[in-house]
Specification:
This protein is α/β, with parallel strands linked by helices. Among the domains are: 228 residues, no CATH class; 289 residues, Metal-dependent hydrolases (TIM Barrel, Alpha-Beta Barrel). The strands form three sheets. The chain has an eight-stranded parallel beta sheet. The protein has a seven-stranded mixed beta sheet with strand order 6-5-4-1-2-3-7, sandwiched between helices. Helix 12 crosses helix 19.
């Protein structure tokens, strides 16, 4: 890995010290007192300019050039020989003044050849190009070469002669000594360096390399160290040992580049078709195929989720990617801190609560010992006292062990309990999770136990309007922070209206209006959930509510709307086939359907969801690989899999690359599904209960895959999510295009990523 700077050189030899003052200030701190030194430092930082190891110079072959090279030799010879960069100078034969077309063509060929070689030799390092020296044609050639082969920064040096002229001094009169130390105060700003930008290599180069040997650009054909068609010979014994370039009159490199440019459209089309017809099981973002081949290879070989030491770096990258979240339950969004925030929204209602008096007294009495245990940080006593998290919703007189006729509303008791932990969120975390605070132990706990971890939220807390709004804000803000641009929120409005404070329709409107507060940054859809293990009346109530809302929103342009229906809960409690009749009214409304299936039951549950309930998407689908014929139907019908790695790991248990204790568990089927060509998506399920977020969930998918997932595969998953959204067709297509642009921009602009 070598950092190289390439510059052209005309009659002004001072260009080299000026450039070195920018790139190697540790050696020649020429701009130390420059009035714009802060801007210069910002440019160095932005483009990653650190001391280069080699300076490559291309110049003409004549008397004027010789004079400049002699001055350069004097200056270079006085630099610290242990830290100065290697200086390589090429003089192009038969190019005295660049006054003829033939001379200009030879220089053009030489510049392109040298930049191509520099790009090759700086592989994994950085290449900087300077447009400052020589005639304008040389600068143009250098910039064209940058557009073909790419560079990390284009540098320019601007003369500021006026202060010097006032002193009777001109830049070319500066001595060798003047250019070995910081510029003197009287001419500290005689020139100003600045960086124009950077260039990516033209993708047609990698396309030609892959598809046509006739037009491929290979270093062996165009090397200047030395082979034909460019030969070299040493001139005289300067410290830098200048090299003479004899240019082949056929101009092989620039001629090939001209043909590539002419054939670019055909080559790119042919290349894209070749890529799409390859052995990939599914298509990625189409714009990714225009990336240089080496970047595509890097995307396919860079695996995540294998090395715990790289977790922070990988999560940082995943956070930058655009995301669509298709499977997120409002009733499970909050962690301990967020639970306290949501509960605190009900402070006014709790403070007003005093009717009936005996219930208020019961609440105060019931909370009293908990306060003391919180002071003592005694999670064990708190857990024994409340019995279960769900028990907080229906408190009783623990001293007389009898139910009181008075009843405390569940959201009052739940919110009051949670608020006691305002100064001790970590203790609330321990009360809820116990040993599962250790991620490695939060594995294979079963569906029922997993659900119990969410009993402090959901319907226990969300029957209060203020808490409901705050929960919606929590999930929206978490999504935006993780670069989620599309979010589907699953909720059960009927369940949040049981206390009678709100009607189910009011609940829906509150969710809709609160999520709409974020519509300039986040597109949202709402999905209703009917529960298998609840009573059928709630199912029918959700169906009736959905019918009413769909009728109202039929011609609505609302950005947040009801767009789907879900059947969730323990699959063992009720078969999907038994739910066909009660769900038929919303099927007749052509509402999108997504069904939880194959999470803790065999593949028959998935079959019924598809063939009895016409599911377009299946939540979890962990047992789909038990029926190969059904997998084929999923391919034929483009049925989408909503996989939730963290909750799947926590409920069912799978092998995780980070924990040897899970090596005996079965392999998560996500990679198998991807390789089959199935439309896999990755989702959070319950961000709070599962202690996850939208980036961590992608990373957990990698961890549950032996050898991890490649970035290319992760991008396929993200694309699948946008394509499978229940958003209106035009919105879905727009979001997909925006996500594609965002991904390509991220990959093109951040060389540190690739």
């Amino acid at each position: 890995m070598t950092d190289i700077l390439v510059t052209t050189l005309g009659g002004t030899w001072q260009i080299l010290p000026e450039l070195m003052g920018l790139t190697n200030p540790d050696l020649v701190d020429l701009f130390k007192y420059h009035p714009r030194i802060e801007n210069i430092e910002q440019g160095r930082k932005k483009y990653g300019i650190s001391p280069v190891k080699e300076f490559w110079v291309v110049t003409t072959y004549g008397k004027k050039a010789e004079e400049g090279l002699e001055e350069i030799a004097k200056w270079y010879d006085r630099l610290d020989k242990n830290s100065r960069p290697l200086l390589k100078i090429w003089q192009v034969s038969d190019t005295n003044n660049l006054s003829t077309e033939d001379e200009c063509k030879k220089m053009c060929e030489a510049i392109h050849t040298i930049v191509f070689n520099a790009r090759h030799h700086s592989k994994n390092g950085k290449l900087f190009l300077s447009l400052t020296g020589g005639r304008k044609t040389m600068s143009t050639d250098l910039q064209n070469a940058a557009a073909w082969f790419g560079c990390d920064a284009i540098i320019h040096i601007i003369d500021n002669p006026n202060p010097l002229e006032l002193l009777g001094i001109k830049p070319y009169q500066l001595t060798v000594q003047d250019l070995l130390e910081p510029a003197k105060p009287e001419y500290k700003d005689f020139v100003t360096p600045f960086i124009i930008g950077k260039y990516e290599a033209n993708p047609i180069l990698s396309v030609a390399k892959s598809g046509s040997s006739r037009l491929s650009i290979d270093i062996d054909k165009y090397s200047i160290f030395p082979t034909l068609p460019v030969t070299y010979s040493l001139l005289h014994e300067l410290p830098s040992k200048p090299i003479r370039l004899d240019i082949d009159p056929s101009f092989p490199l620039t001629s090939t580049l001209d043909r590539l440019k002419a054939d670019a459209g055909y080559l790119m089309c042919n290349y894209a078709n070749t890529m799409l017809k390859g052995n990939e099981s599914q298509t990625n973002f189409l714009a990714l195929y225009s990336l240089p081949e080496e970047k595509i290879v890097r995307l396919k070989s860079w695996k995540m989720g294998v090395d715990p030491a790289k977790e922070d770096e990988e999560l940082s990258f995943l956070k930058k990617l655009p995301k669509a979240e298709l499977h997120c339950h409002l009733g499970g969004v909050a962690n301990a801190d967020e639970l306290i925030k949501i509960a605190s929204a009900a402070t006014d209602d709790i403070n007003k609560y005093a009717d009936p008096p005996e219930s208020a007294d019961l609440l105060r009495t019931w909370l009293s010992p908990i306060k003391e245990w919180i002071k003592e940080r005694n999670a064990k006593s708190i857990k024994e006292y409340i019995g279960s998290l769900k028990g907080v919703r229906e408190i009783k007189d623990n001293w007389n062990v009898k139910e009181l006729s008075a009843k405390v509303p569940s959201f009052i008791s739940t919110a009051s309990f949670i608020m006691l932990f305002c100064d001790a969120p970590e203790l609330l975390d321990e009360v809820i999770y116990g040993e599962y605070v250790d991620e490695s132990k939060f594995c294979n706990i079963g569906f029922t136990h997993y659900e119990e971890l969410g009993d402090l939220q959901g319907s226990g807390l969300l029957q209060n309007q203020a808490c409901l709004k705050e929960a919606c804000r929590v999930i929206a803000e978490k999504a935006i922070a993780q670069n989620v641009s599309y979010l589907e929120v699953r909720c059960s409005p009927v369940n949040y209206s049981l206390d009678g404070n709100l009607s189910s329709k009011q609940v829906y409107k509150i969710i809709q209006e609160t999520l709409a507060e974020y519509q300039d940054r986040l597109y949202c859809s709402i999905i209703f959930i009917a529960s298998r293990h609840g009573d059928f009346k709630k199912v029918r109530d959700h169906v009736e509510l959905a019918k009413e809302i769909l009728k109202e929103e039929q011609n609505s342009k609302k950005r947040v709307a009801l767009r789907g229906f879900d059947l969730a809960g323990d699959e063992g409690a009720c078969k999907a086939s038994e739910m066909r009749e009660p769900l038929m009214p919303v099927m007749e409304q052509c509402l999108h359907f997504t069904i939880h299936a194959g999470e803790n039951q065999q593949v028959q549950s998935i079959w019924e969801a598809v063939y009895h309930l016409n599911a377009e998407r299946i939540g979890h689908s962990l047992t789909l690989n038990e029926n190969r014929e059904l997998m084929e139907r999923f391919l034929d019908r483009n049925i989408v899999l909503e996989m939730c790695p963290s909750s799947n790991f926590q409920i069912i248990g799978y092998c995780d690359n980070y924990y040897q204790t899970t090596n005996h568990l079965k392999i998560y089927p996500l990679k198998e599904y991807l390789e089959k060509g199935l439309r896999v998506t990755v989702n959070t399920d319950n961000t709070g209960i599962s202690r996850t977020d939208f980036s961590k969930e992608l990373h957990r998918a990698c961890r549950l895959t032996p050898q991890g997932l490649s970035v290319w595969e992760i991008l396929c998953i993200i694309r699948n999510s946008f394509k499978a959204a229940f958003a209106p067709r035009d919105i879905r297509h727009r979001m997909l295009r925006e996500a594609e642009e965002s991904v390509v921009k991220l990959l093109r602009e951040n060389n540190d990523i690739l």
